[in-house]
C-alpha cells in the first residue's frame, strides 16, 4: 500500500537555510574554477623581462640546498631597502637553482591569485555585514566584488609575470592583517579588552610579513585606518566605555602613527629630490614624475573601469612625461580628477561608505609606488592591491532592489563572465610569445623594450630582415636609443656582416643618449666574444674601442660611477681579446679603483688568468686588499645584512684565496722544468 508514495512534507525552513549557507561557498568555488580556466593558457609562456633580472639569484651562490646559501640568497635582493626576502624565499617553492622551468612558477602565481580572491571575498563579506546589509546582499556583493577583481584582465600582467609574485604576496598578508584587525575590533565592540591585543598583533605581524615581501606592504596600517575612518566608525562605533579608550589608543599607536611616519618619509624624499634635476638613471625630474603620475593614475582607473583583453603589457618605458601643468594638456585635468576623488572619498563616507572606502583604499594603495619614490613611471601590477575593493560598490548596487532589478541581476552574472573571457584571451597571448611580442610592439610603438622584444622574436623565427627594418625605423624616430642601436648591431652580426651605417648609428646613440640605464655591459661583453670568434665581418677591435670611447664621452653616462667602471672594465676585456695583457691590467686596476669590490677583483683576475696572464692576475689581486676589512657602518637595508653575512662566512676572502692558490699552482706548473 505504501509503495510508490512520495513524501509530501513541505520544504522546511531549516533545509532552506542550509541551502542559503551552502550557495555562497559553492559560487565562490565556481568563480575560482573559472579563474583557473581563464589563466590556464598562460602557463606555457616563458620568463620575461625582469624575471631575468631577479630569478637568476636562485643560482647566484650555487644551488640553494643548504642554510648558508639560503641566507645569502634571501638577503641578496636589491629592489627595496629590505630586499623582499619573503617573496624571494617563495620562489624556492618552484626551484632552487637557475636556469629553471617557468611553468611551476606561473602555476604557483595563479594559485596565490585564487587565494587572494578568497581572502578578499571574505573581507568584503565581513565589511558588508558591518554595513548592516542582509546576508544575501552582503554575500552576493562580496562575491561579485572579489570575482570582478579576480577575473579582471588587467591583472594578467601581474599573475602570469613570474617576478610579480612580489606584488601578489604582500596583498596576501595585507588581507590577513585586515581580517585580524576586524576580528580584534569586533571583540572590542563587544567589550572584550583582549581584542586590543589581537588588533596590535594583526597590524604588527601583517605589516612585517607584507613589507618583507615588498615595500608597499608598509601600507597595511593606512589601509586599516581608512577602513576604520571611512567605513567602520561611521557605521559601527565602539560604544562600550571599557574598551573605547583602548580602541582609540590602538588606532593612534597602530594605525595613525605608522601612517603619518610613512607620509612624512615620502614627503622628505620628495623635498630632497625636488631640486636635484634628473635622478640617477631616470630621464626625468621629481616634479615631472609627480605630474606624470597624476595622468598615470587616471589611466589606471580608465583601464579598470573599461577593461579590454589586450593591455599595454610590460613595456611602458615610452610613457609621455609631464613637464608642466599643461604639457601635455591632460596633466591639469588629471590632477583635478584626483582631487575630486579625494573629496568624494571623504564626503561620501556616511551616505555611501562602501564607495568612500573603495576610493580611499585605491588612492592609499598607490602612495608608495606612485608618488615621490623615483621608480619607473608606469606598471599595471601596481594596481593589484589598491584595486581590490574597487568593484565592491558596483556589486552592492547590482544586488540592491528597486528600478531595473532584473537587468542588474543579469549584469551581476554577465560582467564576471565577460571579464573571464577577456582574461582567457589575454592569457592565451601570454602563452604565445611570438604573437605577444608583435601585439605589444604595435601597442607601444615608441617603447624601446617593446620593439627589442619583437625584433628578437622575429630573429628567432628566422626573419632578420623584419627585425632589421623594425629597429632602423625606430632609430629614425629615436636616434639616441642605445638599446635598440646595440641590438641592431647584433642582428647584423647574426647575419655574419655588420653594415657600416648600423655601426655608426650605435656610435651616435652612445654619444647622445640621456638614458644611462640602456647601457649594457653584457652586450659589450658578448660583442667582444663575437669579435674573438671572427663570426661578424666588419666588427673589429678598433670599432669596439671607438664605441667605448663614445660612451666615455657621454657626460650622462660618466656621471654614474657604475657606468665609469663598466667602460673601463670593458676596455680591459677588449685588451685581453687582442692579447695585450699589460693594457688589460691597467684598465682593470683603474676600474677597480672606481668602486673597489671583492667580486669585481675576483672576476677581473679570473679573466687575466684564463687568458694566460698568470703573473698579471696575481698583481691585480694584490692591487687592492680585501682581507681584514673593518666592519662597514650600519645601514638600515637588506644590502647591509647581505654584506655582513658574506663577511661572516668569509665568502669573498675564501673565493679570492682559492683563485690565488689556483693561479699560483698553474704558474708553478708552467715554471717547473719538464722531465
What share of residues is helical?
55-70%
Structural class: mainly alpha
Order of helices and strands: HHHHHHHHHHHHHHHHHHHHHHHHHHHHHH
Mean pLDDT: 89
Put the structure in a nutshell.
The protein contains 30 helices and no strands.
What does this protein structure show overall?
67% of the residues lie in helices and 0% in strands. It has helices at 13-39, 51-54, 67-74, 85-90, 102-130, 135-151, 156-159, 165-189, 195-213, 220-235, 241-274, 286-305, 331-347, 353-365, 392-398, 405-430, 433-443, 448-460, 464-477, 482-494, 500-512, 521-533, 541-552, 555-558, 561-577, 581-594, 598-610, 614-623, 638-648, 651-671. It is mainly alpha-helical and 675 residues long. It starts with 12 loop residues before the first helix and ends with a helix.
Keywords:
disordered N terminus, single chain, 675 residues, mainly alpha
Write the layout of secondary structure elements.
Elements: H1 13-39, H2 51-54, H3 67-74, H4 85-90, H5 102-130, H6 135-151, H7 156-159, H8 165-189, H9 195-213, H10 220-235, H11 241-274, H12 286-305, H13 331-347, H14 353-365, H15 392-398, H16 405-430, H17 433-443, H18 448-460, H19 464-477, H20 482-494, H21 500-512, H22 521-533, H23 541-552, H24 555-558, H25 561-577, H26 581-594, H27 598-610, H28 614-623, H29 638-648, H30 651-671
Amino acid at each position: 500500500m505504501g509503495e510508490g508514495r512520495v513524501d509530501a512534507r513541505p520544504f522546511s525552513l531549516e533545509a532552506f537555510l542550509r541551502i542559503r549557507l551552502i550557495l555562497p561557498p559553492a559560487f565562490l568555488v565556481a568563480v575560482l574554477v573559472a579563474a583557473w580556466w581563464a589563466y590556464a593558457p598562460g602557463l606555457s609562456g616563458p620568463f620575461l623581462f625582469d624575471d631575468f633580472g631577479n630569478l637568476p639569484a636562485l643560482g647566484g651562490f650555487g644551488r640553494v640546498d643548504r642554510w648558508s646559501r639560503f641566507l645569502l640568497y634571501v638577503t641578496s635582493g636589491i629592489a627595496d631597502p629590505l630586499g623582499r626576502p619573503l617573496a624571494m624565499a617563495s620562489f624556492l617553492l618552484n626551484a632552487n637553482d637557475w636556469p629553471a622551468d617557468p611553468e611551476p612558477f606561473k602555476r604557483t602565481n595563479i594559485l596565490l591569485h585564487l587565494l587572494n580572491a578568497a581572502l578578499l571575498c571574505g573581507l568584503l563579506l565581513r565589511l558588508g555585514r558591518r554595513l548592516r546589509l542582509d546576508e544575501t546582499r552582503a554575500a552576493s556583493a562580496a562575491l561579485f566584488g572579489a570575482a570582478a577583481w579576480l577575473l579582471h584582465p588587467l591583472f594578467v600582467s601581474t599573475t602570469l609575470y613570474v617576478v610579480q609574485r612580489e606584488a601578489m604576496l604582500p596583498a596576501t598578508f595585507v588581507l590577513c592583517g585586515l581580517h585580524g584587525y576586524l576580528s580584534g575590533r569586533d571583540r572590542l565592540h563587544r567589550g572584550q579588552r583582549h581584542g586590543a591585543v589581537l588588533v596590535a598583533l594583526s597590524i604588527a605581524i601583517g605589516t612585517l610579513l607584507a613589507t618583507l615581501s615588498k615595500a608597499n606592504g608598509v601600507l597595511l596600517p593606512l589601509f586599516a585606518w581608512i577602513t576604520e575612518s571611512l567605513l567602520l566608525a561611521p557605521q559601527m562605533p565602539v560604544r562600550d566605555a571599557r574598551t573605547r579608550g583602548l580602541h582609540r589608543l590602538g588606532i593612534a599607536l597602530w594605525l595613525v602613527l605608522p601612517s603619518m611616519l610613512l607620509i612624512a618619509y615620502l614627503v622628505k624624499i620628495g623635498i630632497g629630490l625636488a631640486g636635484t634635476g634628473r635622478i640617477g638613471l631616470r630621464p626625468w625630474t621629481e616634479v615631472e614624475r609627480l605630474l606624470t603620475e597624476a595622468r598615470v593614475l587616471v589611466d589606471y582607473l580608465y583601464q579598470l573601469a573599461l577593461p579590454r583583453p589586450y593591455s599595454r603589457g610590460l613595456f611602458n618605458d615610452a610613457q609621455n612625461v609631464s613637464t608642466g601643468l599643461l604639457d601635455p594638456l591632460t596633466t591639469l585635468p588629471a590632477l583635478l580628477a584626483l582631487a575630486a576623488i579625494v573629496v568624494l572619498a571623504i564626503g561620501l563616507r556616511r551616505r555611501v561608505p562602501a564607495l568612500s572606502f573603495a576610493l580611499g583604499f585605491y588612492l592609499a594603495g598607490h602612495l608608495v609606488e606612485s608618488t615621490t619614490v623615483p621608480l619607473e613611471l608606469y606598471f599595471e601590477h601596481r594596481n593589484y592591491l589598491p584595486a581590490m575593493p574597487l568593484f565592491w560598490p558596483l556589486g552592492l548596487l547590482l544586488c540592491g532592489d528597486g528600478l531595473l532589478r532584473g537587468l542588474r541581476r543579469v549584469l551581476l552574472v554577465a560582467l564576471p563572465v565577460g571579464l573571464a573571457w577577456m582574461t582567457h584571451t589575454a592569457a592565451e597571448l601570454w602563452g604565445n610569445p611570438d604573437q605577444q611580442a608583435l601585439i605589444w610592439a604595435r601597442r607601444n610603438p615608441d617603447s624601446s623594450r617593446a620593439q627589442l622584444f619583437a625584433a628578437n622574436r622575429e630573429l628567432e623565427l628566422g626573419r632578420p630582415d623584419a627585425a632589421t627594418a623594425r629597429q632602423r625605423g625606430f632609430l629614425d624616430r629615436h636616434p639616441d636609443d642605445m638599446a635598440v642601436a646595440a641590438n641592431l648591431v647584433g642582428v647584423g652580426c647574426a647575419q655574419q656582416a655588420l653594415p657600416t651605417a648600423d655601426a655608426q648609428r650605435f656610435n651616435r646613440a652612445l654619444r647622445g643618449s640621456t638614458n644611462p640605464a640602456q647601457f649594457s655591459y653584457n652586450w659589450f661583453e658578448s660583442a667582444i666574444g663575437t669579435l674573438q670568434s671572427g663570426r661578424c665581418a666588419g666588427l673589429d677591435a678598433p670599432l669596439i674601442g671607438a664605441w667605448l670611447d663614445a660612451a666615455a664621452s657621454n657626460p650622462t653616462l660618466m656621471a654614474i660611477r657604475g657606468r665609469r667602471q663598466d667602460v673601463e672594465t670593458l676596455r680591459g676585456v677588449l685588451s685581453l681579446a687582442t692579447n695585450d695583457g699589460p693594457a688589460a691590467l691597467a684598465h682593470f686596476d683603474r676600474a677597480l679603483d672606481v668602486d673597489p669590490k671583492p667580486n669585481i677583483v675576483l672576476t677581473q683576475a679570473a679573466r687575466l688568468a684564463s687568458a694566460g696572464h698568470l703573473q698579471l692576475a696575481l698583481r691585480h689581486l694584490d692591487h687592492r686588499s680585501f682581507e681584514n676589512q673593518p666592519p662597514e657602518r650600519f645601514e638600515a637595508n637588506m644590502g647591509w645584512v647581505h654584506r655582513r653575512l658574506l663577511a661572516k662566512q668569509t665568502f669573498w676572502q675564501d673565493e679570492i684565496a682559492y683563485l690565488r692558490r689556483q693561479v699560483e699552482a698553474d704558474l708553478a706548473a708552467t715554471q717547473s722544468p719538464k722531465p
